Amino acid sequence: MAVRYPFGTVDFQRGLVEVAGTAFFVSSTHAQAEDSPSHGRTPEVPFATIDYAIGRCTANNGDIIFVMPGHVETISSATSLVFDIAGVVVIGLGQGRTRPILDFTNTAGSVEMDAANCRLSNVQLRANVSAVVVGINVDAHDVELDLLAWTFDATGDDFVTMIDVTTVNRTHIHDCLFESENAAGGAEAINLTNTADTRIENNTFRGNWSDAAIQNTTTLCTRLVIKGNVIYNSDTSVYNGIDVGTLSTTGIVANNRITALYATTLTKIFRDGDLTSMDNFFANDVSERGSILVPATSSV
Question: Are 231 and 242 in contact (CB under 8 A)?
Fold first, then answer.
């Protein structure tokens, strides 16, 4: 049976993949895996790393990299995994904890989205050290990040910022799980600076962030959409859910649900700038029922 996906067609009976460009395969667990020009074209003889596979792609050619279940790739520096070819799509295969893991083992480790029109989908990003500065740096237009599961290996392992989006347009972050432990260490799950047409939709945030789950700093954003998210943040000292500071950020915040992660009472939920707010709800303690959130200019 052949099934058509947005990226192409997969024939499950014949084991064939048809995409607009070239399909590559990556697996760190396969006995035949090797970063060699003669590898990578089939699941039986895959490349060993995603970064090497990206280097084999052609810009805006419809190339797709399929990362096999169980794959683990170490992210120890800002050059460990760089999307530097435009239009590359990386899709992790597998469900739940069988999905590929990007394992951050150094505070300077980061995934760099440096080329336009790229997508990273269905992988786990795991902090394996304390205070990873930035998990993903989005430095190019039209980047899509979806079905990502952010997690940590052990107590004290964390990301300061999970995703940083700075001076780019049309970033789309959706259907992800942002999870940290209930302890100080993280600043924000998503940090935005000087972006246009960013969409943050249908994500779940669960953890402790000392700034906010979604933070806009330094320079305002325009036409921002934050919609359909569930936000738990156990830090009670800040604008717990969404904070655009005193910036005149524009856009729409709609249909979000914001509360505390544990039995802690929140005093500030959402600082809205020039955003339009519609149908957002909050509960400032786990034992309370939610009520409509009507933003004020200073605090909610």
Answer: yes
Would you say the C-alpha torsion 73, 136, 171, 61 has a positive or negative sign? negative
Sheet with 16-19, strands from edge to edge, namely 2-5, 8-11, 16-19
What is the value of pTM for the model shown?
0.90
Looking up tokens 């649900």 gives 257
Domain 65-286 architecture: 3 Solenoid (2.160)
CA-CA distance, 205 to 274, in Å (whole number)? Answer: 23
Rounded-to-integer distance, Cα 72 and Cα 4, Å: 28
Tell me the CA end-to-end span of the chain in Å, nearest whole number: 53
213 in Cβ contact with 233 (< 8 Å) = yes
Distances in whole angstroms, Cα of residue 4 to Cα of each of 7, 11, 18, 230, 232: 8, 9, 9, 31, 36
DSSP string, 9-29: EEETTTTEEEESS-EEEE-SS
Q: Which residues of the chain have pLDDT under 70?
A: 1-18, 260-267, 284-300
Amino acid, res. 265: T
pLDDT for 287 equals 60
CA 158 to chain centre: 15
Confidence at residue 3, expressed as pLDDT on a 0 to 100 scale: 45
Q: Which residue has the tokens 């249909």?
A: 255
pLDDT tens for 284-297 read 665 655 556 555 43
Whether 232 contacts 260, CB under 8 Å: yes
Q: Which residues contact 174 (CB under 8 A, 6 or more apart)?
A: 144, 145, 146, 199, 200, 201, 202, 203
DSSP secondary structure string for all residues of 123-183 = -EEEE-SS-EEEEEEE-SSS-EEES-EEEESSTT--EEEEEEEES-B--EEES-EEE--SS
